[in-house]
Each structure stands twice: as C-alpha cells, then as structure tokens.
Design goal:
It is built from twelve helices and 25 strands. It has 441 residues and is α+β, with helices and mostly antiparallel strands. Helices cover 26% and strands 32% of the residues.
Length: 441
C-alpha cells in the first residue's frame, strides 16, 4: 500500500490507495500543492559567483525576444525540492528555453518543504547579481510567495508574480524536443571559447552549422551529415556572459536536425539553453503534445500522481508502475498526460524526466491549443467520416470550409490535404483534421 496525500478545496486528506482505480482522487481546483509553509529552502550558495552569472544569463534570456513579439519582462520559474533547485524560463518569443540545474553540492542549507514559485528578476536584483564576488557569502531563500537573495551589501526580495500563459504552452512542448535529442559534440573550455570567437556578427538570417574539422569546432554555412543546425545563430550570444567560467559544453540535436540544445557544465551546476528550429517562431511542436491529449484519460489519475510526486523528483514510470500496481500501458498514458500539461521536465545529461509542480488548471490547456479545441469541435459535429480503419492504416474524410480533406494515417506517416499540412509537412505539429481522426480511432 502507498500513502497518498491530496488536497480538496484546501483541505488535506489521507487515503490508502493501490492500483489505478484508487488514483481517482478528489478533484483539485489547481495543479498546485497547498502549502502553508512560507519557505521551501533556506541556505547559502557554495559557488556564489558562478550562480550569479547563471542567474544573470537567465534574466537576459527572459528579457529577450527574437520574433514578432516585443520583449517584455518575464519571470523565472523556481522549483525547490529533492535536494535541488531549478530556475527556468523562456524568451518573450518562446524560441529560447533556459534552465539552471543547481545540484545538491551547489547549495548548503535546509529544504523545509518542496514547491514552485515564479518571481520577477528586476533591476535591483540584476544590480545585486552583477556585484557578487567569488568569495562573498550569499544566502538564498525560496518560498511560496517570494524569493530572497542576501549578500554582504544588500537584501533583495522578489515577490511571486503570475506565470505567463505563453510559458505554460512552451513547457508542454520543449521537453518533448529535449527527450528526443542526442548528444553530438563535447567541447572543453578552450574549444568552447574558440568556437564562440567565430560567432557571426549581426542578425544572420541564413542557417549555420556547428561542425568539427581537423579537431577544431567552427560555425559553417555548409550543411554536413555530422553538423548541428543552428536556426537563428545570433541567439547563441545569450551564452556569452558565462563562457569564461564554463568547464565544458555539450551540444545536443534533435533527430530531424531542426532544434538543438547546449548544456554548460560548471561542476556543481549545469545551465541548459534550448533553441527552437528558427528565430522567427517559438517552440511550436505542441502537435506532439496534442496527440498525447487525445487519450480519454481521467484527470483524477493525473491529480493522484501529482499528490505522490515532489518538485524535481526523478520521474521513473517503471518504478511507479510496480509500486502502485499500475499496468505499463496506463502508465504510458499518464506519462504522456503529465508531459502534455507541462508537469514533466527533461534532464538531458541524466537522460530522464523530473517532476515539476506548476500553478495552473489543466482545463486551460484546451484554450492554449486552438487546434485541440477545433479538433474536438469536428468530432462533436460529426464532421469526420472514417473510410478505412485497418491495423496501422486509417483513411478518413474530414469536413472543411466548403471542401472535404482527405486524411491518411499509415503507421508513423500521416498526411492531410489541408493548407496547414501542405505548408509545414508536420514540422509544426499535426493539423486539426489529423488530430480529429486520431481522436476517433
């Protein structure tokens, strides 16, 4: 048996559960642990100078924009729990994702509870970070309603602010990219500095590739089979503030060569920066997430797992299946659902998911993904006619605006005659017509 604690309208309750049927727990109004403890963590930084530089880099990312959306001040998400602290956020255009993973050895203090908040990094905070010295004592306090950074010169308090809805949508997409990425290159400190010294100036529109020739890494405009494509290479300048202190970097790339990520290693912490396929658009691969949302999975099961897991806890679906008598097929659906609503992050170097607690309602996902909403409407209006439904092969007609679209799903190959599919060929997620057919089949 497993003890699960859950909350219903702010009231804490305990129950004994075993198996998936027992995961049908009371319906939470928010995916957020009700926690009356004001402080999650209190302690000092063992590498204050490096930490401050990484925080400044995060602030630089969240204040930037590389697409049509103008820059606006956004606020890092801070997760404390399981002996780790994570800071993460997006650029205003959602095209750059950044996360600082602070390992247990980077902090010296006490985890009183686990939880998540999101706070503003304003000018006083940035000024304080820029003045931190290598041997200076710096204290960090992370709470439900605020974050404090205490240096020898000043105390900065940052209050909790509203989590941007655009970020929630990004969190449902970026970890799907990360989970499929493969390690391509490992660069030491000297190789890293040499590579970034050759970074092109200005806003370069053409694609560049990180390649290795005769033992040296460089940027090239020539596509090669062993190169890593960088869409919007000027976005790499966001890393310039930490290049002098990095130990090494790891370069990861998605199988389709569209997106990439760079992990900067500092020993006691890592900073990850992931880049969408192109600078003019953000992480719009929510089509993968939408496919996971087609499963008719009771939300109460998701709430049950949410009450089991702590912030930053390694998410091991196999172990959870065995411990809670949940069959692997259902566990796979639960994993997809948690991923689809932003509750799972992905650690590239460890090669596993971690749990992330976020303060938002699951029913907001529908409003954040108009294709999902429109696909459900097609199903409800009986606008989908299945012509053939054989094993690994489905054909259907889907009603459009004055036309009938033909949808063919053959194993992993899926096609539609609509303008969206014709324009993007699946690179920006599946269309509402394919999604509607999948809902029915």
């Amino acid at each position: 048996m497993t003890d699960l604690q859950y909350h219903y309208n702010g009231v804490s309750t305990y129950t004994k559960v075993k198996g998936v049927n027992s995961l049908v727990l009371a319906h939470q109004t928010e995916i957020e642990t009700v926690n009356n403890i004001p402080c999650f963590f209190w302690g000092s930084l063992t590498e204050p100078y490096i930490t401050a530089k990484c925080w400044s880099t995060i602030a630089k990312v969240v204040r930037s924009s590389f697409g049509p959306i103008p820059p606006s001040l956004r606020d890092p998400i801070v997760s404390a729990g399981t002996e780790r602290i994570r800071f993460e956020g997006f650029s205003s255009c959602n095209g750059v994702y950044v996360r600082l993973d602070m390992k247990p050895e980077s902090i010296d203090g006490e985890f009183i509870a686990n939880g998540t908040t999101n706070v503003d990094f304003n000018d006083p905070m940035l000024n304080a970070l820029n003045s931190i010295q290598k041997n200076e004592k710096v204290t960090l306090a992370v709470g439900h309603r605020e974050l404090q950074v205490i240096t020898s010169k000043t105390t900065i308090k940052e209050k909790k602010v509203t989590l941007p809805m655009r970020w929630i949508k990004g969190l449902t997409s970026v970890q799907l990219y990360l989970a499929n990425m493969n390690l391509k290159f490992e660069l030491n400190k000297v190789q890293t500095i040499q590579l970034f010294q050759s970074l092109p100036k200005g806003n370069v529109k053409s694609d560049f590739f990180i390649t290795k020739r005769t033992g040296k890494f460089m940027f090239s405009t020539l596509a090669t089979t062993d190169g890593v494509r960088i869409g919007g290479i000027h976005r790499l300048r966001l890393l310039e503030g930490i290049l002098a202190i990095v130990d090494k970097i790891y370069v990861y790339v998605s199988p389709d060569q569209e997106s990439c990520a760079i992990v900067c290693e500092f020993g006691k912490m890592q900073l990850l920066m992931a880049f969408s396929p192109d600078a003019y658009r953000g992480f719009s691969g929510e089509g993968k997430a939408l496919e996971n949302m087609t499963e008719n999975l009771p939300l109460e099961w998701v709430y049950g797992l949410n009450s089991l897991l702590k912030s930053n806890e390694t998410f091991d679906p196999t172990l959870l299946s065995i411990e809670n008598d949940i069959d692997f097929g259902t566990m796979e659906q639960l994993t997809s659902s948690l991923s689809s609503i932003g509750l799972l992050g992905y650690d590239l170097t460890a090669g596993n998911h971690f749990y992330r607690q976020l303060p938002f309602k699951t029913d907001r996902i529908l409003s954040l993904n108009p294709r999902l909403k429109n696909a459900k409407k097609l199903v409800d209006n009986a606008d989908v006619r299945i012509l053939k439904n054989a094993e690994n092969h489905v054909e259907a007609n889907v009603k459009g605006s004055g036309v009938l679209h033909k949808v063919v799903i053959n194993n992993e190959d899926q096609r539609c005659t609509c303008d969206w599919f014709t324009a993007y060929q699946g690179k920006r997620g599946i269309c509402k017509h394919i999604l509607a057919v999948k809902m029915l089949t």
